[in-house]
Amino acid sequence: MGRLVLAILCLFVATGTVLATQPKVQKKHRISHKKAKVKSKPVSLKKIASRYGNGPTFEGDPDAIRLSSLLFYSTPYRFGGNSSHALDCSGFVQKVFRANGIELPRDSRSQAKYGYKVSLSELKPGDLLFFKTYRQDVSHVGIYIGDGKMIHATRRGGGVKISSIYDPYYRQRFLFAKRVVEAKGEEEADPIAEIIERETNR
């Protein structure tokens, strides 16, 4: 009986020793292969504007374009909208010009390829103003209606609204303005002809 107990004790000690000397299994660490995001450098407004030169113009009535644009005032905004029920910025411009017999492309970047550039001091009703609002390129367009104001379809305003072109938000994002429509039969006055007519009528 004593030998049996001794044998069991020896077996227990031997088993414990083997278990104690077994090496610990190290946990495997997963290696992340996520690529670091590289932030693109912002492009200057001047550089974006330089991409757009002069393009085709149309003969028409700039004042009629201004009046047509006001008919859409307060139309709701919807990205991709191109109906009288909802419009986005370029859809609004396309619809206004189409109502006056002028066909412009659907998106603002393509619309920016038409007309010739004018400065803010040279703006006339019917001119187009282009802005960089959410991408590194032309991304917003409005129609100048005079008195330092433009009408445009804007997500910020919830639809077609009138804004000052000197509003800090738009002033900081302004790229360039273009004259797409020239008034029909618009000619500069001849000063010599005016003098002759005045003297003749005396």
Describe this entry's structure for a reader.
The chain has 202 residues and is α+β, with helices and mostly antiparallel strands. It has a domain at 48-183: endopeptidase fold (from Nostoc punctiforme), CATH 3.90.1720.10. The chain is built from seven helices and eight strands, in the order ααβαααβββββαββα. The relative contact order is 0.16. A hairpin with a 4-residue loop joins β5 and β6. It has a six-stranded antiparallel sheet with strand order 2-7-3-4-5-6. The N and C termini lie far apart (152 Å). The radius of gyration is 36 Å and the shape is globular. The model has no long low-confidence stretch (mean pLDDT 83).
What sort of overall outline do the alpha carbons produce when their principal axes are compared? globular
Strand order of the largest sheet: 2-7-3-4-5-6
Helix vs. strand class: alpha+beta
Q: Nearest-angstrom radius of gyration?
A: 36 Å
Number of DSSP strands? 8
Alpha plus pi helix count: 7
Task: Give unreliable regions as ranges.
Answer: none
> What is the fourth-level CATH superfamily of the domain at 48-183?
endopeptidase domain like (from Nostoc punctiforme)
Order of helices and strands: HHEHHHEEEEEHEEH
| CATH arch. level architecture of the domain at 48-183 | Alpha-Beta Complex
CATH topology of the domain at 48-183: endopeptidase fold (from Nostoc punctiforme)
Our estimate of the beta-strand percent is 15-25%
* Sheet with most strands: 6 strands, antiparallel
What is the first-to-last residue Cα distance?
Answer: 152 Å
Mean pLDDT: 83
